[in-house]
Amino acid sequence: MYAQMVKSEASQDDPEKLAGFQARIDAGEKIEPKDWMPEGYRKTLIRQIGQHAHSEIVGQLPEGNWITRAPTLERKAILLAKVQDEAGHGLYLYCAAETLGVSRDELTEMLLDGRMKYSSIFNYPTLTWADMGAVGWLVDGAAIMNQVPLQRTSYGPYSRAMIRICKEESFHQRQGYHIMMKMAQGTPAQKKMAQDALNRFWYPSLMMFGPSDKDSVHSAQSMKWKIKMNTNDELRQKFVDQTVPQAEFLGLTVPDDTLRWNEEKSGYDFAEPDWSEFFDVIQGNGPCNTERLAARNKAWDDGAWVREGLMAHAAKKRAAKLAAE
Amino acid sequence: MSQEWPLWEVFIRGQHGLNHRHVGSLHAPDAEMAIKNARDVYTRRNEGVSIWVVEAQHITASSPSDKGPLYEPSESKVYRHPTFFDIPDEAGHM
Amino acid sequence: MTDQTALFEYLLRLGDNTLVLGHRVSEWCGHAPVLEEDIALANTALDLIGQTQMWLGLAGEVENAGRSADDLAMHRDVWDFRNLLLVEQPNGDFGQTLMRQCLFDAFHVELLTDLTNASDDRIAAIAAKALKEVTYHLDRSSETVIGLGDGTDESHRRMQAALDLLWPYVGEMFTPDAVDDAMRAAGIAPDLNDLRARFDTRIDAILTEATLAKPESAYAQSGGKTGFRHSEHLGHMLTQMQWLQRAYPGATW
């Protein structure tokens, strides 16, 4: 997902306090910034929310790649509004992380020097206009699958950020599917473009949920703390079950020969993505890792004088106001 | 690392007549820019008619351990809530 | 020139300005110095794209040749564009982008203010809607120009350089030609001398507060709004903007 493979921290806290904390979570209470929380809970959340925020910010790039080439004025406006929303969502999430005692600039530095990760999906290139459809339909579709349950997460600021994000994102997936519909019903070239986009984004979308975590200790701890609401496999299955009929409606073929409806589990059987590719991308060897990080580093470095300049002006204004009083 | 822009808490009055409600936070070099940033970040969908910003460090918050003494006394004053009073439907809207 | 031809030309000027500048500003999406600025720039670009749809939509109606706003945006070549040279200038650094924005906004606010009184109701209505948006654009761009001009030595130096670079493109906004004259006679366009005076008052105040020096040369580049001679930059922008429509003619998106 936007936060893949988040390691949870073991907690070394007082067992009695831990039990009280767990009882609050089990009772469905929200944990707020000033409440006592286990160090492991705090650190895991910083990692998870930070990764989620970084994904939104880096996620601006593959779609931003097409804003200046959008085919109509309306498509341009819709795409720009959507990518802008992603910046907003990154902002909300950074703010949620900041309530845990880490600053946005610190998190940003950790993204830029590679200490923190972002979702693997954004290391794939967007090559045609149909990719704007595929990203909205598949990538946002997969993200929503994870974000909707996270609205109920135990940490108050994270939960509130997710509620706002889910509300705003409701149009994102639909606009993507709408692009796909136009392409699939369009000229032969457009239809070919749509199929090609599905071919390239299908498996990377399945990877977004992360490898199977059935036996993962980290996942078990995070689920107990209600900062992870479902297993990766549950969400992946749900995603496939939802998406396959949508692809059929478009008249497109999911690039998986083994895809079959399984009556017994009333869900699809489907092929696993190539997990070695996933680990390569996570390690920095995806098709666009270098460009994505370089673009973020450039924006940050080139913007330093602006951030400093406006800060210096604010300080001068404050001083002048004080002197006048 | 250079000095980070301070954090501001943003409160928005959604409609005329309602209270300002906390909607989130953002960074800005000063109060004027914070207001502008709040407009751009938090009212992208016509959510507001009035914006307050306050630098996060100036907010004094009650500590969680005060929760009992601060709020529980009012919990027992159930008569402050209209639903405490059972009025027959025949009495009409009240 | 008939009034209809002049009106069509004039509407292209209004719509091409917002189209080209909106496109330029949208190039920042995902690359701004700080998240809040990224979001704010996108809002500006969205407003400008929306205004483009209205101006070029009306231009298509007036032309009465069956061309939509999209047709006009995506299927004209450089010499058919009627935007000011200022707005097609590349983004440069963030300071250059904000200086360009501020100079255009100060002109745009005054222009739209006058257009709300245009004898053509359709124009007055679009101007009224756009003016609300553009008033905020100027508010924001001027405050940023002031902040950066008055900020650090580096930010001051960069803003002065941006001003020096862009100042030669200011004059074109206020140099009247036959289209402006015809539109003024028709009770639509304002007196550009009067507009210039109001622009100068605004810009002088902003530059003073920003501690920036207004360039002394009054030399003005021209050729954008008449379409006679655009800069080389516009063609490159159009190759991106129009590429899909040109590569796949007849497709709907």
TrEMBL record, chain B:
Family annotation (Pfam families): PaaB
InterPro entries assigned to the protein according to its UniProt record, in alphabetical order: PaaB, PaaB_sf
Listed name of the protein: Phenylacetate-CoA oxygenase
Organism: Marivita geojedonensis
Gene: paaB
